[in-house]
Specification:
The protein is mainly β. The chain folds into five domains: 27-63, no CATH class; 68-231, Galactose-binding domain-like (Jelly Rolls, Sandwich); 236-279, no CATH class; 295-332, no CATH class; 337-464. The chain is 3% helix and 42% strand. It has helices spanning 20-23, 57-63, 119-122; strands spanning 36-39, 42-45, 68-76, 83-86, 95-101, 105-114, 126-127, 130-140, 146-155, 161-166, 178-186, 190-191, 197-206, 212-218, 225-228, 230-231, 245-247, 253-255, 260-261, 264-266, 276-278, 300-301, 323-324, 334-340, 343-345, 348-353, 358-364, 367-383, 386-389, 404-411, 422-425, 431-436, 444-445, 455-464. Strands 3, 4, 5, 6, 8, 9, 10, 11, 13, 14 and 15 form an eleven-stranded mixed sheet that branches. An eight-stranded antiparallel barrel has the order 25-26-28-34-30-31-32-29. The longest helix is centred in the N-terminal third of the chain and has 7 residues, at 57-63.
Length: 465
């Protein structure tokens, strides 16, 4: 038996009985202050490295993460003085909230509520028992006796709030912003109803006599958030995923909600719509099988450039609103058809056309092309320049840039017309006139005096509206 060192004081026997919680004092309960504690069966340390190393509840709780994550924001909620809890980090700069904490008491710092009708929250069917966690950045203006904790509530559509769990107190806060991990144990399932919302309230506790301040930090790179376990049916897996979808025998996905498919995120939230947010440098390819159509009945707005595109046929455009912003040009609409042309004179009278009085046109944006052949069979006291009607009024521009000259010809006219003629469209008019230029270079408009009462006009006109 080893001899006692005579220079050491003799230990007194202590017969006090300790409770179960007191037995671990100095070994487990001050885990956050100890880097490592040696025991006969292993070590207790912040990050266990060996099979026999022991851990305490704080470490275990830190490993248990809920499948639903909500971020604290500075955005005002629709509920009174509450702030929003969002399913995604906002990306906004860091914000903070400072609250004076009553001496030797607790004070509410801030209340947060999930956004009404948030798709992910609406997809929850019940809250599950387990560890409800909060990751919060905080500081205090006094380095002793200042801590924070949180309370977790379910709020009904009628505004009634039920407290589900309260966390332990944080480590003692100091003047420098610190990351605090808080955990609350919640036992028992709780059914989730339509319109229910998550509410989290963060409190400050002051162990000092005078009032002191606590500041909590959110957004920015703090990622201050709450995590909790909840059951979400497989038809909705995580934020922005599928809600109410079915897979049929041909492996089609039919969805009336949001969907994530190969990195494509439904970004809208409107029933029946489809918003595509392409991640990273991914491309979208739409491949249609034989006999399949892609129907677009609203606007197509392109911010970049359309390349390698072959519009073989454009038909049945009656239901299309518009096709916008093709590279730098603007194609406001597409239209094609025929119209019954007329031939009148600038002063008075007109010419009668045969059954062949239709001209064809194509309008793409503000560019119009007209073509065809007109047969004149008689006249009604014509006098003045010949004018052939157009399907749309000619547009105006600067200077003489709005004058359009095109190919034209008059045959079987029975008159004198050297070098035949060409067409001219003038701004703000809905017709074109014919001009002839003889060898002397002095042009003139074709009038009733240059033709008889039976002739033909060949039309190939292009102009801008």
């Amino acid at each position: 038996m080893a001899k006692r060192n005579p220079f050491l004081p003799k230990a007194t026997k202590d017969n006090r009985q300790f409770t179960e919680g007191q037995k671990s004092k100095g070994i487990l309960d001050d885990f956050s202050q100890r880097e490592s504690t040696d025991l006969a069966t292993g070590k207790i340390q912040h990050i266990p490295s060996k099979e026999k190393d022991l851990v305490n509840k704080e470490y275990v709780d830190s490993l248990i993460r809920g499948n639903v994550e909500l971020f604290l924001t500075e955005d005002a909620s629709d509920i009174g003085t509450y702030l929003d809890l969002t399913v995604d980090s906002t990306g906004n700069p860091e914000e903070n909230t400072t609250q004076a904490i009553t001496g030797n008491s607790t004070t509410l710092i801030a209340s947060y509520a999930s956004i009404l009708n948030e798709a992910e929250i609406e997809a929850i069917t019940d809250l599950e028992p387990g560890i409800y966690s909060a990751h919060i950045h905080a500081s205090a203006n006094f380095p002793a006796g200042m801590t924070i904790y949180f309370e977790f509530y379910r709020r009904t559509s009628l505004g009634a709030e039920t407290l589900l769990g309260t966390s332990h107190d944080s480590n003692t806060l100091g003047a420098i912003e610190s990351q605090e991990e808080l955990h609350a144990n919640v036992s028992g399932d709780l059914m989730w109803n339509t319109g229910d919302r998550i509410v989290v309230k963060v409190y400050g506790r002051n162990g000092n006599s005078p009032s002191k301040d606590i500041t909590i930090y959110i957004e920015g790179d703090t990622l201050s958030r709450v995590l909790f376990p909840a059951f979400i049916p497989p038809t909705f897996v995580g934020p922005h995923d599928m809600a109410s979808h079915t897979d049929d025998d041909t492996y089609n996905i039919n969805t009336s909600g949001t969907a994530t498919i190969g990195g494509i995120i439904y970004a809208d939230g409107n029933v029946g719509g489809l918003g595509l947010d392409v991640l990273r440098s991914a491309n979208i390819s739409i491949n249609l099988g034989v006999g399949q159509d892609l129907d677009v009945v609203r606007n197509i707005i392109v911010g970049g450039t359309i390349i390698n595109t072959d519009f073989t046929t454009l038909t049945d455009t009656s239901n299309a609103d518009s096709l916008h912003d093709h590279s730098t040009a603007s194609i406001d609409d597409y239209e094609e058809g025929t119209y019954q042309a007329t031939v009148v004179c600038s002063t008075s009278g007109n010419y009668v056309l045969s059954a062949n009085d239709d001209l064809a046109y194509v309008k793409i944006g503000n560019l119009v092309h007209v073509q065809g052949r007109l047969s004149i069979t008689s006249a009604n006291s014509p006098s003045g320049n010949l004018r052939v009607s157009l399907p749309f009024t000619v547009g105006s521009s600067v200077g003489l840039s709005d004058l359009t000259y095109g190919v034209g010809a008059i045959s079987s006219h029975g008159g004198s017309m050297p070098n035949n003629c060409f067409s001219r469209c003038s701004p703000t008019t809905a017709y074109f006139e014919m001009i002839s230029v003889p060898d002397n270079g002095v042009s003139f408009f074709i009038t009733n005096t240059n033709v008889d009462t039976r002739f033909e006009i060949m039309v190939n006109v292009q102009y801008m509206v």
